């Protein structure tokens, strides 16, 4: 699994990097077929203070790409919200991959 964490108008500190990796471990625990994860953390220059910190994540899994974004006034809260969204998407993707069809009962003659 490749993990890329980048910042836009923001320096990615080692504490922030470790927080992101521990949060994303939850997703890889639920679904092992993750190929690539790209995380973009940005600080927007808006006049209002709320929803200024943004976190975006694109996950490439076998057969599909999942994308989620979150904005909050605190970057850590935005990351928590982002991981919750991604966890729901990965759960839906995992249930779609599972075969829900059962074999028809055999006819007794």
TrEMBL record:
InterPro entries found in the cross-reference section: HPF/YfiA_ribosome-assoc, RHF-like, RHF/RaiA
Entry's Gene Ontology cellular component terms: cytosolic small ribosomal subunit
GO terms, biological process: negative regulation of translational elongation
Molecular function per GO: ribosomal small subunit binding
Keywords linked to the UniProt accession: Translation regulation
Subunit: Associates exclusively with 100S ribosomes, which are dimers of 70S ribosomes.
Protein family membership: Belongs to the HPF/YfiA ribosome-associated protein family. Short HPF subfamily.
Listed NCBIfam families: yfiA
Name this polypeptide is given: Ribosome hibernation promoting factor
Taxonomic source organism: Ramlibacter cellulosilyticus
